[in-house]
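Notebook entry, structure prediction.
Reason for the run: the old model in the group folder had no record of what sequence produced it. Starting over properly, with the input documented here first.
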Amino acid sequence: MRRLVNYVPPSLPNLKLPPVSVIICARNEAHHLPIHLPKILSQDYPNYEVIVVNDRSTDQSLAILQNLAQQHSHLKIINIQTTHNQLKGKKNALDQGINNATHNYLLMTDADCYPASNQWIQQMVRNFSEEKKIILGYGPYLVKNSFLNKCIQYETFQTAINYLSFATISKPYMGVGRNLAYVKSLYKKGAGFESHKELLSGDDDLFINQFASTRNTTIEISPQSFCYSIPPMSWRAWYRQKRRHLTTGSHYKREYQFYLALLSLSHFGFYVSLIALLVLGYSGTMIIIVYLFKIGIQLFYARFLSKKLNLTNILPYTPLLDFLMIVYYVIFFPYLFTCKSIPWK
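New structure, fully documented this time:
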């Protein structure tokens, strides 16, 4: 965490920016495409194409894409009507997008996302080098005025701290498909999603878990590189989303399963221990001092990290949200050990 707090993007040489293929998978995204896609099509970047894979949409997505393609020559549409590929769900759509990409440098996002600036592509792609083949970006959710949104923001914040911090100590284990870049040659060399083709999820985290290494991965967290996403608007929608994401956890490398389990157990165990001490009649003053010491250190680091990740609005709620994470663990813990797949749309 300390390395992430002190992280400063490297001063990179002003090399010629390589051509890039931006790949977006869309299924029934007629509401988002006309709003978000123009922000990607109008990036300040000299040479790039945008590939949108319309995956069996039943709404007006295809018509909207065709209209935008008439206005933007660098928009390429791949329309999937049926699928016979062994890959499931979004992986099939993403695989077709990658196979049809003109360029070696790939940048991924989702149809319900939009970049924070017209410098998004440049900020992400500038990190590529002969050695660096994977760039982990940050994909925050839009801030809404609701308690649900604060819970979503806090959980997303904690997840980002984990995977970005691990990457800064040369132990990259996941990324988010909302903002992720890698080279096509790495995808092809590693046979893409073949090792987890039976799972609907894992097009981002399992791919990174399998192919990211100490040498080939770096992060990008400049505010201009963020890619914002529409948050779930109901508890049910968030529950379904997290359940789908967490089913990939049992497929992580053993090393990272151990680290993540240790982090979760330490968090959960801290509050359970405090409650146990209170029930057993230990001094309330001592319990309060231990709690304040822990939350004080956490707030100290959160203050700096929330500024880096542009999420200072949740700082006042950190003590409550941190405690409520034990409920999150209880609800979602079983899904870390299940392979049951849940559709992405």
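Summary: Residues 254-279 form the longest helix (26 residues).
The old model has been moved to the deprecated folder.
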